[in-house]
């Protein structure tokens, strides 16, 4: 039985080529990209969402999130719409406030 959320080779190639610039506010931008580890191509979809966080065009941090078993459309939506994801925004806020303290 094929896993429901298994990514095709074409989907993996497409996801790996994308970069999205998410404007969070006047100063903050989050550039999101997707990485699919090589071993995931033949197994279930072990996918990483990579975030590069910029304040006033200066990169200040990087983060990653495991998107294990997310469907292709879910991965695209998440990468394109970081601003709409409360969980990720809280994690970014927590990471950045830890840097300030």
Q: Can you describe this structure in just a few lines?
A:
This protein has 101 residues and is of the alpha+beta class. It contains 3 helices and 4 strands.
Could you explain the architecture of this structure?
There is one protein chain. This protein is of the alpha+beta class and 101 residues long. The chain has one domain. Helices cover 33% and strands 30% of the residues. It is built from three helices and four strands, in the order αββββαα. A four-stranded antiparallel β-sheet has the order 1-2-3-4. Strand 1 and strand 2 form a beta hairpin. The mean pLDDT is 87.
What are its keywords?
3 helices; 101 residues; 4-stranded antiparallel β-sheet; 30% strand; elongated; alpha+beta
* Quantity of strands, as a count: 4
- Could you estimate the helical fraction of the residues in percent? 25-40%
How do the strands of the widest beta sheet line up side by side? 1-2-3-4
| Global geometry | elongated
Structural class: alpha+beta
Unreliable spans are none
> What is the helix/strand order?
HEEEEHH
How big a fraction of the residues is strand? 25-35%
List strands and helices in order, with pairings.
Layout: H1 9-17, E1 19-23, E2 28-35, E3 48-55, E4 58-66, H2 72-80, H3 86-100
Antiparallel strand pairs: 1-2, 2-3, 3-4
């Amino acid at each position: 039985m094929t896993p429901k959320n298994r990514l095709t080779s074409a989907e993996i190639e497409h996801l790996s080529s994308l970069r999205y610039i998410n404007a969070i506010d006047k100063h903050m931008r989050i550039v999101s990209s997707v990485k699919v580890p090589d071993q995931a191509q033949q197994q279930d979809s072990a996918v990483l969402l990579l975030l590069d966080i910029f304040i006033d065009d200066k990169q200040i941090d990087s983060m990653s999130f495991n998107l294990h078993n997310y469907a292709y459309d879910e991965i695209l939506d998440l990468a394109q719409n970081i601003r709409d994801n409360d969980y990720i925004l809280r994690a970014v806020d927590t990471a950045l406030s830890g840097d300030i303290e």
